[in-house]
């Protein structure tokens, strides 16, 4: 089932200094699968994610949800019920506990009183359990490690009960073990929660090992999609990332330095 489909989508910026970042993009992020967006710095990954989330308008084409709804036609409340976003922005919720932060995901569903219902609390607790953060629920959010905070923010997103979860560089502040753990968690959430998960990442080796599908956005504004194995085998990844003696080894799914025997993965 298609969670998100790009239909000849062109993204960029309007105005006197406007520019096209990427054009004529066609791709699918399927329900139940982890799709990773990769590409060189400056290729436009964040611009593309902002567009598919409805945070900025496309220049042409459309981003369409499973029922055929164009993202740009949704109002803020409807958008928040269908697409959840986790960014790299620093979150400072004061003295809120992890459970209270996660419960903020229920905001689109609250009555005018703003009070959580018993059902809202159940959804929040299920979200915390899904990201393996139940044991963190009563701890102050600001006391948590970076990895723990990221799991709680993922719980907040799940509490929105979205059909599409979008994450922009979700592992950028995590240590190596936490990066592996979090990407594995995202793949599990996609399958078990029945949602489409789309994330951007610079963690190329991990993406190639743990993703179901990959969108490779090139610096020239074009994009190739496919399974990690297919994009590695056909040379697409190497063409985008190899430089000098540094090359991507399609068999080992890691970077190597030619002539030195050094593996960087």
Question: Can you describe what's shown?
Answer:
- The protein has one domain (2-263): P-loop containing nucleotide triphosphate hydrolases (Rossmann fold).
- Strand 6, helix 6 and strand 7 (196-200) form a beta-alpha-beta unit.
- The mean pLDDT is 92.
- Helix 4 (118-130) crosses helix 5 (146-159).
- The protein has 265 residues and is an alpha/beta fold.
- The protein contains 9 helices and 12 strands.
- A 6-stranded mixed beta sheet has the order 5-6-7-3-8-9, sandwiched between helices.
List keywords for this structure.
265 residues; alpha/beta; Rossmann fold; six-stranded mixed β-sheet; three-stranded antiparallel β-sheet; 26% strand
Question: What is the quaternary state of this protein?
Answer: single chain
The name of the CATH topology is Rossmann fold
What is the CATH architecture descriptor? 3-Layer(aba) Sandwich
First-last Cα distance: 33 Å
User: Which series of helices and strands comes N to C?
Assistant: EEEHEHEHHHEHEHEEHHEEE
Return the CATH class: Alpha Beta
Q: Which radius of gyration do the C-alpha atoms yield? A: 19 Å
- The total strand number stands at 12
Judged by helices, strands and strand pairing, the structural class is alpha/beta
Instruction: Work out the count of structural domains.
Output: 1
Ordered list of secondary-structure elements with their pairings:
Layout: E1 2-13, E2 19-30, E3 34-38, H1 45-52, E4 60-65, H2 76-82, E5 83-86, H3 98-103, H4 118-130, H5 146-159, E6 164-168, H6 176-193, E7 196-200, H7 204-210, E8 213-217, E9 223-226, H8 228-233, H9 236-241, E10 246-249, E11 254-257, E12 262-263
Parallel strand pairs: 3-7, 3-8, 5-6, 6-7
Antiparallel strand pairs: 1-2, 1-4, 8-9, 10-11, 11-12
Protein name: Putative ABC transporter ATP-binding protein
Domain ABC transporter: 4-244
Keywords: ATP-binding, Cell membrane, Ion transport, Iron, Iron transport, Membrane, Nucleotide-binding, Transport
